[in-house]
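Notes from the 1:1 (GR / supervisor)

We went over the backlog. Supervisor wanted to see one worked example end to end before approving the batch request, so GR pasted a single chain during the call. The sequence is below; no edits were made to it. Supervisor asked that the structure be written out right there so they could see what the output format looks like.
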Amino acid sequence: MIDFSQIDKTIHEKGRLSIMTLLASRAEPWPFQDLKAELDMSDGNLITHLRTLEKAGFIAGEKLTGDGRPQTLYTLNKEGRKAFEQYLSILAQILDLGK
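Structure output shown during the call:
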């Protein structure tokens, strides 16, 4: 029996799941502008989801300043990767029920 209460509600929301999926897809940090373009989200919507994921301790943002425009890079941290893998494991269990 699957314990559906184990589904992480922070990750389960469509926008945050999309962000977590992109961040998990590569080891290099994602610039805010690349996330925005890939997910087709407004600045405000993306920032809100990123803040929620940061507050949950799943991602980290690093602000870079230099000669050009300042940018913020986001990465999935160790705790976030563990939570994302656990989330996917529960989904896999759900898929297996249909086989």
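Supervisor's comment: Residues 36 and 42 are 7 Å apart (CA to CA).
Batch request approved.
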